Amino acid sequence: MEYSQFVGRKVLFILLSMAGIVVLAGVAATLGSASITPTEVYTAILARFFPGTFETTNFIDTIVWQLRLHRVLMAIFAGMGLAVAGAAMQGILKNPLASPFTLGIASAASFGASLAIIMGAGFVAGQWLIVGNAFIFTMLASITVYGLARYKGITPETMILAGIAIMYLFSAMTSFLQYVGKSEQVHEVVFWMMGSLGRSSWDKVGIIALVTVVCTLLLMYYSWDINALGAGDETAKSLGVNVEFVRVFCMMLASLITASVICFTGTIGFIGLVAPHITRMVVGGDHRFLLPASGLVGALILLAADTVARTIFAPVILPVGIMTAFLGVPFFIYLFLRRRKDYW
Amino acid sequence: MVKITIKDLSFSYGSRKILDDLNVVVGDSEVLSLVGPNGSGKTTLIKCIDRILKPKGTILLDGGKDLQSLSRQEVARYIGYVPQSTTSALTTTVFDTILMGRRPHMGWRVTDEDIDRVVEMMKLLHVEEFALKDFSELSGGQKQRVLIARALCQEPEVLLLDEPTSNLDVKHQLEALDTVRAIVKKTDISAVMAIHDLNLAARYSDTLVMLKEGKVHAIGDPLSLLTKENIRSIFGVEAAVMRDLDRPYVVPLRSLSGEAL
């Protein structure tokens, strides 16, 4: 039947994206100051899983496993998380301009990090100070937005307005900290805010992957409800959806993903906005497919951006946050100019 | 069997009372139309019945179950709602829009039975040719039919329609209401609709409920209810009512604004 073809096309797109990620990951791991071939990379990866079947050298094993692979995986999971969070936000807020950062999350994270860098103050001590602060302030911002919006009813409008208020509050406080901070501290804050994958490690990859995968699955469980919200709150209610709960719960999941990504990477913009748009143009607006497909597209974009950022001015490594915008904007404008229909 | 019993129903927005102590019964397999001037509470009553709004008083469904004690999902299986107009922010195809009506029944996966249901309803409402078009590209009449198909996919006992003819031309108005009436007479479903056009209401309804300022002014069959006196006191309009057709026909003559109603 025609419908199964229609669904088949979406599944095909998802499979192709997955294959694209595997290929690109291999390519990304070959690029760097020590040159190794894609075959050597894949062999080194497989050698750990099937020792004996695949042979590799110590040198290549070290480069792949200790230097490059965790960064590649970090790019994949961070890109996936930001894109899924963005797709969910656009769905529950019914707003094409929504992104993971719409509700003031980015400025809250920046404030948390600045507080740690400039004042050395925070909720957790030691090496997790900046990370912990960024995470906690992000979640704090989400809860405040929810609290404010509750007074007037949880609608997209109330949430966006509350989010904007929170965003300005935290950016004002960040500016204040920067004003009183020493110049090298301010430099560190600015660098943190640009977003980079340079601080990746296997532990961090593990945390981001776990949170992203679990939250993505939960969001996908609510796909039908998010679809129904798109038809309007009243219609969604008439279809049996508990509108306010779904909106708040999905917002919290999206915030949780975003918080756990950006506390390690800094604010990597653009992925969460543009990946869902690109995906929607291909697979359409059904969140059962849109959410996972967006995640894969986000992973591809961030991995590509990080690979370019690492190599284009090597040995200088650009922050990936700058790269995502440079790569994404022209592509986005191209799609936007040639589109046939209104996607919103 | 009685489908819906509404007892002492009131609803206020803040201190403004919209519905005031309504009592209405919706019977089996009937078309019941709510008529009355703007602001008389027609749409509000529809939304209260579907629990989109939370009223005071009792609404009993399905042989005496209290609406408030049911879950949204259970209500969605009993009542299908066709909104006045929908501005879908997200793009969806016609097929996916109608498939959404299966939400109260299905899990995450779409079964063959769900798809069969959707196809059946698309055929019934003659929208199958647009199945993979975007919902937003359709005309007003087509959208209306898609939304009715979606509500019917819920397999409801009652269909609520909020001004089903407001965006349609004459031909589509007749077609939409013909469809609703045919479904009601063919199946066990009852329909409750808010409607402005008295002549359409008279022609397609079994029962009229005249609302004025949130109160029930009169309930009855179209022939006995659509009189000069009722129209004057509800709408403040001087009208001629012709009775030589099988249904009454109202010709509004002039507004009585300023005069004693």
Automatic annotation (TrEMBL), chain B:
<dbReference type="Pfam" id="PF00005">
    <property type="entry name" value="ABC_tran"/>
</dbReference>
<keyword id="KW-1278">Translocase</keyword>
<keyword id="KW-0547">Nucleotide-binding</keyword>
<dbReference type="InterPro" id="IPR027417">
    <property type="entry name" value="P-loop_NTPase"/>
</dbReference>
<dbReference type="InterPro" id="IPR003439">
    <property type="entry name" value="ABC_transporter-like_ATP-bd"/>
</dbReference>
<feature type="domain" description="ABC transporter">
    <location>
        <begin position="4"/>
        <end position="238"/>
    </location>
</feature>
<keyword id="KW-0067">ATP-binding</keyword>
<dbReference type="GO" id="GO:0005524">
    <property type="term" value="F:ATP binding"/>
</dbReference>
<protein>
    <submittedName>
        <fullName>ABC transporter ATP-binding protein</fullName>
    </submittedName>
</protein>
<dbReference type="InterPro" id="IPR017871">
    <property type="entry name" value="ABC_transporter-like_CS"/>
</dbReference>
<dbReference type="InterPro" id="IPR003593">
    <property type="entry name" value="AAA+_ATPase"/>
</dbReference>
<keyword id="KW-0813">Transport</keyword>
